[in-house]
Specification:
alpha/beta, Rossmann fold, seven-stranded mixed sheet, 13 helices, globular, binds S-adenosylmethionine
Length: 306
Amino acid sequence: MNYFQEILNRAMRQCHETYSSLFDYIYPFTTENISGYINEFTLENRSLLTVGSSSDQVLNAILYGCENVTLLDINPYTKFYYYLKVACILTLNKEEYLEFLRYYNYPKVFKDNKNCFNIEIFNKIKSTLLILDYESYLFWCELFKNFSPLEIRKNLFSTDEDRTDVIVNSNPYLINEQAYKTLRKKLENVEPNFMTTNLLKDEVIGHFDNIWLSNIPQYLTTLEIKHLADNTINALKHNGLMLISYLYQTTINTPYNKDWEPIYNLPQILNLLKEYNPYLSSFLGVKGLKFKDEKIKDSIILCRKL
Ligand SMILES: C[S@@+](CC[C@H](N)C(=O)[O-])C[C@H]1O[C@@H](n2cnc3c(N)ncnc32)[C@H](O)[C@@H]1O
């Protein structure tokens, strides 16, 4: 059996079952305020390696002029979701895009979207998907043939999905119709690379100006965080910039609570990573967007390779 067939079979099994492990689920949208940190990075005509099964990290980077993008994720469905989103962006307007992909609390809070993965909308985008990537086309056609839209959405995707206004404000490409159309144009020039890789086990191959590791360290022990940093920094170019971790509701002055994950113990983490010159950048947090409260900040831990 070839690799694609194995992944498709796995997705079919997952659509039947109710529980899989955490990172078998695709994130429908980013859970980070990417708008808050994207300007820290020089992306135009530079390269980026990023995790993020929602593909939002890649889509925003492309909007910012990054043409050399690698999307690495432990989740094997990531490439198929990227092409599904791209087919949607090329075919649908922004409202239709959200109507097809949003589920929880859409269109209103406490109302889940019955039109999510609507088969008529899928039929509208399917010929574009075929042109973009044949495996992605097969993957989604097989799933839509064998399962209902909601079976696919509920079993293959994470429930971690914010309100529409939070998602829109977190993603520069969704901020208005103009940005969405600009992304559509830029997508014509970009063909990302995809790697299904476990950053804790596999060597990271490549040489990048920028690396984004999302909030993976939130799920790791202190030793694993050090291992992750050592493993990925090798793939960063001289003077390159790496986002080691996204931190929710935290700034450099937030006192550590011993019940929190080790990545939030900032004195310890900054000391652990000191050979990589770590520092924090803070901005309006996801909860700050949600509750319209400027005081709620998120941060990223950055390292520049000198
Ligand atoms: C930690 S999750 C959380 C979602 C994230 N905040 C976002 O906005 O996309 C980020 C991504 O890391 C991936 N991931 C988790 N552990 C990984 C690992 N060891 N190697 C590669 N990718 C991993 C997950 O599959 C997921 O797509």
